[in-house]
Specification:
The complex is a heterodimer of chains A (about 525) and B (about 450).
Chain A lengths: L16 E4 L6 H9 L4 E4 L14 H8 L5 E4 L31 H4 L1 H5 L9 H16 L23 H13 L4 E2 L9 E3 L3 E3 L24 H7 L3 E3 L2 E8 L5 E8 L2 E6 L3 E3 L2 H12 L13 E4 L2 E5 L14 E3 L14 E6 L3 H12 L3 H9 L4 E8 L8 E8 L5 E6 L4 H20 L4 E5 L2 E5 L25 E3 L14 H18 L3
Helix pairs in contact in A: 1-7, 1-12, 5-12, 6-11
Chain B lengths: L8 E6 L10 H7 L3 E6 L15 H15 L4 E6 L1 H14 L8 E7 L11 H10 L7 H10 L7 H13 L2 H9 L7 H4 L6 E6 L7 H8 L7 E5 L6 H4 L1 H16 L7 H8 L5 H11 L13 H14 L9 H11 L5 E3 L5 H11 L8 H13 L10 H21 L1 H6 L36
Parallel strand pairs in B: 1-2, 1-3, 3-4, 4-5, 5-6
Helix pairs in contact in B: 1-11, 2-3, 5-6, 14-15, 14-16, 14-17, 15-18, 17-18
The chains are: A alpha/beta (about 525), B alpha/beta (about 450).
């Protein structure tokens, strides 16, 4: 994005807020604070990119916009990082996200009350939805004119074009009596001009959302909230990796220390917002020893279930064309025959070849002629996949390893083992997905297990013994430290996280501003 | 396949100062069984003597137009002397994806002028400029020029041709090269060109002899082999057409031409404005053949050999193969992982080294025996070494399979094979995306091979 004429601040100037991270958690609140006239600086570990420079090439794109610094992944079902779920760059994970933008259901926020398992959110569903609607209106979300599971819902833009995978899923669902429709997609299907973000072109169905949107149609922070923030006087410093937090005798944050081009800088501030994502936020807190009187930092790591079922069809599907996940069903948010807490969403799937091959190896264990044959079938394949509830669990956590990265910070070690509830959801989902793909005419099917998203490592709650931040988003321990990103999720939600994270970001800004005395 | 991957390769030949396309006639005839030589008259020379616009950038565009017009999708460049500097610029732009060309497989330099300023005595430069002060060079000047640039007397036919070409040269082109082109420093613009390259020098050449070639062109082409032709001056294609042809043929067959070809119609899509320059460049660099004599950068020779044996079983390739093991070695050396590793494993390079050392005996095993080991590795049942536990072997082997299959798929020939053309989903000027998304539907530009269903 264009940062050439932005306002800048000196390191020794005491700014009102430093925001660490420019993704879905940091960008909306950065814009909101700047719009209120606060002096704000965002520190982003990654580089600044221009949408035009993104490439559909999966290897180059990962190096551009994914967090490729090494993390250690353990447990019985280690989750994949890098291109699978971790972003980097001005815009954070919204540079590579799939823009699949379902809203969380009211059930999701009352998981514990309704099922006895997991956690409730200390946020009212109506309040959260009001913020979500603000995000949808500002950033631009496309969807169907009639949403079967929420008939009052309206989307600003008509739905994104369907591709062969979409037609396949619609066909399969119809045959089985499953309701399915066009998915809410955080992209504009008509040209759209922002007051401060410039021109965004209608989705061209290029199919490479995960490699970075090249015409601004996808909601990415660098084409939506961040230009608004800069227009209101925020400064964004790219290539700035925060590794220290300085505090005064009372424990309040006074500055952050960050490394840029190999040189350490100290930015003084009166408030700090950590919005670095479900891995980097707890890693920084553990590294600096800040905000962890509860011992909950790094705990309750959650990764959504993301199992996929792929079918081989007689027709050429070539699902890399078009928006990758344009069909949704919410019929399984709380299945009637569930033997588990929570549920799952189903989406149609298009996939790029290297991503599919990686899942064929990691998920299905293929090698040799089987692997080559599967890729030779690539163009005949279409699939469906889920985003499924994951319960917080004591054994699933992020710790600091003994290995240190180039910036002197210990690498994160994440342990994740799917539990009985996750396994039960997977079993149910595999049955459902397989029946859809078969009803749509697949001649053979393949199950590819995977997990996605990094959630819950600095969770929000009402009990300072069991949570890291309070229901406003403020640290229980450090009054001028706020956290807003996927790490604050008390439960995983069935819905994909980014839309909710943006809404939380606006809400956190409001809560902060309400308590802020200039 | 919608076009034959074995369609012939073209060698675009760029001549020296005062020369022309026909200087390559002898070379062309002698390599005709493996390569089509398409020699190009540069602006101001030969049949193009009447053309204005003789600067290096204009000559580069002239060459690029000729390559584009020819429709060639797998090609090499041969550059003699002045033509070598132009060839290096054309090659750099093609590998960067900047020129709407695709398919460059290698570069042959003949006593070539380097991208840096050409070493030339000022007195000689002044003399040569004086010959063109009043217009085209006369017969005496041509005689002097040719005699100064040969190791021994040319064959009478070649001599007559050389003299004629000098006298056909436009004074403007002659002067432009000596005043400007030869002095331009294009080192940064050209950079380092990591592709198969052959550098031939004349053993009796002056400023552009073997030492200069190693110093000035060798640093631009890290993969180049440098050979000197004894008893030869500067006019290699005229002095030693058969030796040059022999070297070019060997270069093509043993170095530049190995590895899979991208089908012609897919190559044309990559070259087209549907593909962005950046993406075209990535694919162009991956399409060049692997160096069969490369020294591994992260692994030892034995470790690389073991990985190659495994790679043949994990990703069996039909016909001309991509050295995916060597590409994984380069990936390891660059430190480029996938953002995570299994917590039970040591860092990637160490895990590869340890596992491959333990598996080194596989190099002499039969495919059936190797497959049996692979089955146990993948299942977490390989517990025959203290170096790693069975679980660690399985975790490493999962990473290795992912690395190998990704390197295979990243090659544009593999993309063509599996019928993937998503790299062409939008260019730099008009972002096209896809207009047709349904099953069994394709757009007019889509060139997909037919696969049995």
């Amino acid at each position: 994005m264009n940062l050439t004429d932005m306002r800048t601040f000196a390191d020794d100037e005491i700014v009102d807020a430093v925001v660490v991270g420019t993704g879905a958690g940091g960008a909306p609140l950065l814009a909101a604070l700047a719009a209120r006239g606060l002096r704000v600086v965002a520190l982003e570990a990654g580089d600044n990119t221009d949408p035009h420079d993104h490439t559909p090439d999966e290897i180059a794109a990962a190096d551009d916009i994914n967090w490729m610094d090494e993390r250690l992944s353990g447990g019985e079902t280690p989750t994949a990082f890098g291109p699978n779920n971790s972003g980097r760059g001005v815009g954070g994970s919204t540079l590579h996200w799939g823009a699949f933008a379902p809203r969380p259901s009211a059930h999701d926020l009352r998981l514990r009350s309704e099922s006895g398992l997991g956690e409730d959110w200390p946020i009212d569903h109506d309040e959260l939805v009001a913020y979500i609607e603000r995000v949808e209106r500002f950033a631009g979300v496309s969807g169907p004119s009639h949403y079967p599971w929420d008939p009052d819902r309206r989307y600003l833009f008509p739905p994104v074009a369907r591709n062969a995978s979409s037609d396949m899923m619609m066909r399969g669902c119809e045959a089985l009596g499953i309701r399915a429709t066009d998915a809410p997609a955080a992209l504009v299907t008509r040209d759209h001009d922002h007051d401060h973000g410039g021109h965004r072109s209608a989705c061209a169905n290029c199919g490479t959302c995960h490699q970075g949107c090249r015409n601004g149609s996808k909601v990415s922070m660098d084409t939506t909230y961040l230009p608004q923030a800069v227009a209101h006087g925020a400064e964004i410093r790219a290539g700035s990796m925060v590794h220290g937090i300085e505090r005064d005798a009372s424990g309040a944050v006074t500055a952050v220390v960050y490394r840029r081009d190999g040189v350490d800088h100290r930015q003084r501030c009166t408030n700090l917002f950590l919005c670095a994502g479900g891995i980097e936020t707890p890693r920084l807190l553990l590294h600096t020893g800040v905000g962890n009187s509860s011992g909950q930092v790094g705990r309750n790591f959650m990764a959504h279930g993301g199992v996929q079922v792929w079918g081989r069809f007689e027709q050429e599907m070539r699902g890399y064309r078009g928006y990758p996940s344009s069909i949704i069903t919410e019929d399984f948010v709380r299945p009637a025959d569930a033997d588990f807490a929570g549920g799952y969403l189903i989406q149609s799937l298009g996939v790029m070849p290297l991503t599919l091959a990686t899942t064929l190896v990691r998920g299905a264990g293929l090698w040799g002629r089987e692997l080559v044959d599967a890729m030779d079938d690539y163009r005949f394949m279409a699939g469906v996949g889920i985003n499924g509830e994951c319960l917080p669990s004591d054994g699933n956590l992020l710790e600091l390893s003994d290995e240190v990265d180039d910036d002197g910070i210990p690498k994160a070690r994440i342990s994740f083992s799917a539990g009985g509830n996750e396994d039960a959801i997977d079993r149910h989902a595999i049955r459902t997905l397989t029946s859809i793909v078969e009803a749509a005419g697949a001649t053979s099917t393949m199950v590819l297990p995977r997990t996605a998203h990094t959630l819950g490592t600095a969770r929000m709650g009402t009990d300072r013994e069991r949570a890291v931040i309070d229901p406003d988003g403020r640290s229980f321990d450090v009054p001028n430290l706020w956290i807003c990103d996927n790490s604050v999720f008390p439960s995983s939600l069935v819905a994909n996280p980014a839309l909710t994270t943006m809404a939380l970001s606006l809400r956190t800004a409001d809560r902060f501003l309400a308590s802020h005395k200039p | 396949m919608s076009s034959s991957p074995s369609s012939r390769t073209t060698a675009f030949a760029l001549h020296a100062l005062g020369s022309s396309a026909r200087a390559f006639d002898g070379v062309a005839e002698a390599v005709a069984d493996v390569l089509d030589v398409h020699a190009i008259d540069l602006p101001g020379f030969g049949d193009a003597a009447g053309m204005t616009g003789t600067s290096i950038p204009e000559s580069v565009r002239h060459v690029e137009r000729a390559i584009r017009r020819s429709g060639a999708t797998r090609w090499i460049l041969i550059g003699h002397s002045m033509g070598g500097k132009i060839a290096s610029v054309v090659a750099a732009r093609a590998l960067a994806g900047e020129s709407e060309l695709f398919g460059l497989a290698g570069v042959v330099l003949l006593a070539a002028s380097p991208p840096s300023p050409e070493p030339m005595e000022e007195e000689r430069r002044r003399d040569m400029l004086s010959w063109a002060a009043d217009g085209r060079l006369d017969a005496d000047a041509a005689r002097t020029f040719v005699d100064a640039n040969v190791g021994a007397r040319l064959h009478p036919d070649a001599d007559a041709l050389a003299l004629d070409d000098v006298q056909r040269t436009s004074a403007a082109a002659w002067t432009a090269w000596l005043e400007d082109g030869s002095r331009e420093d294009l080192t940064d613009a050209v950079g380092t060109l990591d592709l198969p390259a052959l550098i031939l020098a004349g053993g009796e050449d002056g400023d552009l002899g073997e030492d200069a070639q190693r110093r000035l062109n060798g640093s631009v082409y890290p993969r180049a082999s440098v050979e000197a032709l004894g008893g030869t001056g500067h006019l290699l294609p005229l002095e030693r057409p058969l030796d040059v042809a022999h070297a070019v043929r060997d270069f093509w067959e043993s170095t530049a031409g190995i590895g899979p070809a991208v089908p012609a119609d897919v190559a044309a899509v990559i070259a087209s404005p549907r593909t962005s320059a950046r993406t075209r460049g990535l694919l162009a660099r991956r399409a060049v053949a692997d160096d069969p004599h490369a020294t591994p950068a992260a692994l030892t020779d034995v470790q690389l050999a073991t990985l190659r044996v495994l790679a043949d079983r994990i990703v069996p390739q039909d016909g001309a193969g991509i050295d995916i093991a060597l590409r994984v070695d380069a990936q390891l050396a660059a430190g480029g992982g996938d953002g995570w590793r299994n917590a039970d494993l040591p860092p990637d390079r160490e895990a590869y080294a340890t596992a491959l050392d333990a598996l080194a005996p596989l190099r002499t095993h039969s495919p059936r025996e190797i497959d049996a080991v692979i089955t146990r590795l993948a299942a977490g049942e390989y517990d025959e070494h203290d170096a790693l536990s069975a679980a660690q072997f399985a975790a490493w082997f999962e990473d290795a399979r992912v690395d190998l299959v990704r390197q295979w798929l990243a090659h544009p020939a593999t993309m063509a094979r599996i019928g993937f053309d998503g790299f062409a989903n939008g260019g730099d000027d008009v972002f096209t995306g896809f207009a047709i998304l349904g099953a069994d539907e394709r757009e007019d530009w889509e060139m997909l091979p037919v696969i049995a269903r």
